[in-house]
Amino acid sequence: MGMAPILGKDSTIEHLLPIFLSLLKDEFPDVRLNIISKLDQVNQVIGIDLLSQSLLPAIVELAEDRHWRVRLAIIEYVPLLASQLGIGFFDDKLGALCMQWLQDKVYSIREAGANNLKRLAEEFGSEWAMQHLVPQVLEMVNNPHYLHMMMALRAISLMAPVTGSEITCSKFLPVVVEASKDRIPNIKFNVAKLLQSLIPIVDQSVVDKTIRQCLVDLSEDPDVDVRYFANQALQTINIATVA
What we know:
Elements: H1 4-7, H2 9-23, H3 29-37, H4 39-46, H5 48-62, H6 68-85, H7 87-93, H8 95-100, H9 107-124, H10 126-132, H11 134-141, H12 146-163, H13 165-179, H14 185-198, H15 204-218, H16 224-242
Helix pairs in contact: 3-6, 4-5, 5-6, 6-7, 6-9, 9-10, 9-12, 11-12, 12-13, 12-14, 13-14, 14-15, 14-16, 15-16
């Protein structure tokens, strides 16, 4: 990979690119991982357009690799790829993968997938996120699988500061409040933590009208952890009100 800047564009395309593509199919995950982690060096030489044409099929395949560290490396590369390819190309080719990662069986992949949504929202803006990410995240909140629901809540907590108060109040907050009524304690105390993170984002009137009452209800929950996190969030509201 380090030879690409030395050899230049033409020689890299002729001699090195076929090797990279071959190594992306190597049986050892560390080999595939090293190719992905050093793609920037090649991108600087041959340009993102040619790189994407050559590598995109391999990247899509690696995004579903059986080794989770390979999938993780791909996730970390996606925001850079998205910024260089632009909105249209990203929507067509890579959008579906980003939601797929939120449902991965490995926690590190799910967490990285949630952070990936945040970084994409930062890159393309809240309007794009509202159109392409928010509806799918909201749909996941209603998923009967509680781990998928948990990751949707995590994605909301990461995206809300980026998308801003209006989207948070109109789209995120109603589903979060509804999730607070779930029967699973893990869901409910994560809702409490999420509501606490939303306090600085929304207007005080929303805190007083909606968030506080939801937290009061959770503070009376039979589960000790739910009560604890709800009371922690209520203390944040009280401190902010005094201040």
